[in-house]
Amino acid sequence: MKKRNLIIGIVVVVIIIACIPFFMGGSAAKGLKLETANAGRTTISNVVTATGTVEPVVKVEVGTQVSGIIDQIFVDFNSEVKKGQVIALMDKVNLEAESRAQKAQLASSKTEFEYQEKNYARSKSLYEKQLISDTEFETATYNYEKAKNSYEQGQSNMIRVDRNLAYATITSPIDGVVVNRAVEEGQTVAAGFSTPTLFTIANDLTQMRVIADVDEADIGQVEEGQRVTFQVDAYPEDVFEGDVTQVRLEATTTSNVVTYEVVISAYNPDLKLKPGLTANVTIYTMERPNVLTVPSKALRFIPNEEELASMNLTVTDPAIKAPMGKRVIWQKEGQTIKPKLITIGASTLNMVEVVDGLTDGEEVVVEVSTPIVAAAPPAGGLFGPPGANRNNGEGEGGSN
């Protein structure tokens, strides 16, 4: 008998719960509420977000074109340097020896050339007077041309040797700061196939840039000159500003995601921005300050005559159609909902600019809302009196 009564009780409770929406339907209809909003002036904007890397505007990798041992280094990380300043010296013993040998060879080539030049001049004079044979003149000419070519080759080799000797003195090509030093004193560098990087020098760290990767779906909205704000994890409370200076055309594909590089200027007077920091970028693709706006939902509102009638409201011209270039919004006047034609401009996800048709403070209908009414549980709960616990028969606070 107890089991049967328990089953009957459970069935009754389930039926009551299932019928609650039917009983609440009438009251829900009575609870409909007309939501309105006032037209007001504000700033609307559309943005594109991306992630980028902070870099110096000008960064030069300084290397060497000759192989050898690093003899002396005069700068370190973060050292400020001037253009032409000596920052390192390579061992010059072999290069200086090669220079002296080349000078001696050049002097020998010059002596031979001057001798053969005089001999050629004599032979030419005698040949014109037909005092020597053709063979003797051709020999003199041959020796002269050969000595001349050898001398010119020696001059070219001397230029190359002197230039290599000059390359052993490493100087800064720009004014800036050393951001990387890749060698130590005594280290051997080989420049056989490529120029090894010894130092990386950034020109001016007060003028930085951000290279941002913008998704292909957003790149069409990005243009040069647009305002940008960005933040870095190193200074989470600071917001840095810049402008789009370049939209690069080359696409980059990573894991089937296509992005384009956008270059953003970043003024850095406090030197907070450091090369390599990750920046979370916001690009303002559209900004309209101090414009008259209404919620976007006002344009999507379509009056339902039955719903409005339940609130004792009537609709004027419910089938109105907006002409080309116009949009319809609805306004409440007393117990009547009337349409009004407006011209819109820029829009965002939530707001739309009103160019014509409304003035500041005018009220527009946004939507009809239905309050959510929560059903109260039975006074005694589903299975027992207030405070009872199904497991141990004690109150909800437990035993004392």
How would the blueprint of this fold be written?
Blueprint lengths: L1 H29 L2 E6 L1 E17 L2 E5 L4 E6 L6 E2 L4 E5 L2 H36 L5 H34 L1 E3 L4 E6 L6 E2 L7 E6 L4 E9 L11 E6 L2 E20 L2 E11 L10 E18 L1 H4 L4 H6 L3 E2 L11 E7 L2 E12 L3 E6 L6 E7 L31
Parallel strand pairs: 16-18
Antiparallel strand pairs: 1-20, 2-11, 2-15, 3-10, 4-6, 4-9, 5-8, 6-7, 8-10, 11-14, 12-13, 12-15, 13-14, 15-19, 17-18, 18-19
Helix pairs in contact: 2-3
In words, what does this structure look like?
The strands form four sheets. The protein has a six-stranded antiparallel β-barrel with strand order 2-11-14-13-12-15. Strands 3-10-8-5 form a four-stranded antiparallel β-sheet, with no helix packed on it. With 400 residues, the chain is α+β, with helices and mostly antiparallel strands. Helix 2 runs antiparallel to helix 3 (134-167). The chain is built from five helices and 20 strands. Residues 22-29 and 379-400 have low confidence and may be disordered.
| Bulk shape | elongated
Mean pLDDT: 86
Total number of strands = 20
How many H/I helices?
Answer: 5
Report how far the terminal alpha carbons are from each other: 35 Å
Into which percentage range does the β-strand content fall?
Answer: 35-45%
Q: How does the helix and strand content classify structurally?
A: alpha+beta
Helicity level, as a percent range?
A: 25-40%
Provide the low-confidence segments as ranges: 22-29, 379-400
Radius of gyration: 44 Å
Strand numbers in spatial order across the main sheet: 2-11-14-13-12-15
- Topology order in helix (H) and strand (E) letters: HEEEEEEHHEEEEEEEEEHHEEEEE
